[in-house]
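Today's session is about reading a structure prediction critically. Students often jump straight to the picture, but the first step is always the sequence itself: look for stretches that repeat, for charged clusters, for runs of hydrophobic residues. Only then move on to the predicted structure, which in these notes is written as discrete structure tokens rather than atom positions. Here is the chain we will use throughout the hour.
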Amino acid sequence: MLNHQKQINRYSTRDYVYETIRKKIIMLELSPGRSISEKEISEMLEVSRTPVREGFMKLAQEELLEVYPQKGTFVSLIDLNHMEEARFIREHLEKAAVKVASQNFENHNLKELESNFILQKEAVKNKDYTKLYELDESFHKTIIMGAGKERIWAIIQQMNAHLNRIRMLSLTMNHDWDLILSHHEKIIDAIRKQEAEIAHQVMENHLRKLTFEQGKLKQEFPDYFN
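Below is the predicted structure for this chain, in token form.
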């Protein structure tokens, strides 16, 4: 029983380390190209090196960390090809999901979207891009969950890390916050009126926005991209 509890604690710690580092990478707190070490993370999170090493291995498998023998471990640079693949998959999954949502969305899900949108406007007013990112994630999740497609959200999260880093970078540069709000407002309106084709088209435009921002972001942050 004691050994079993140690095993649970060990894997809980590993997951905590993994999720914490992953979030810091996505939120750009650990910037692309930055060197990190097991010792640094171990001390920062107050855990032993074993779960840190295991977390590093998992993040390397997701291509968020690059491990070079005799040289060190580095946060991966943003790969635009990887990002575009993730965006393409997300676009097609979410376009399908929002059409379903437009046909059978429950009233409580609609209320949740509307409440979320009010908070988004407040975040834009306060120029709080971190909060806006979190609300944006919740907004899209609510649509997918309301469409009854929970596994789609899980799939998106598995391959979304590189895309989310460039989303955060875009938000930090204050690129088209009002356009994001406009898209979200139109999506809510289309779902409310059960206009599936309009919801589908707006979602497409919304998720293609980053395609047009890549060049400018790469020009402004050349060290962040490979």
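Discussion point for the tutorial: Residues 1-8 have pLDDT under 50 and may be disordered.
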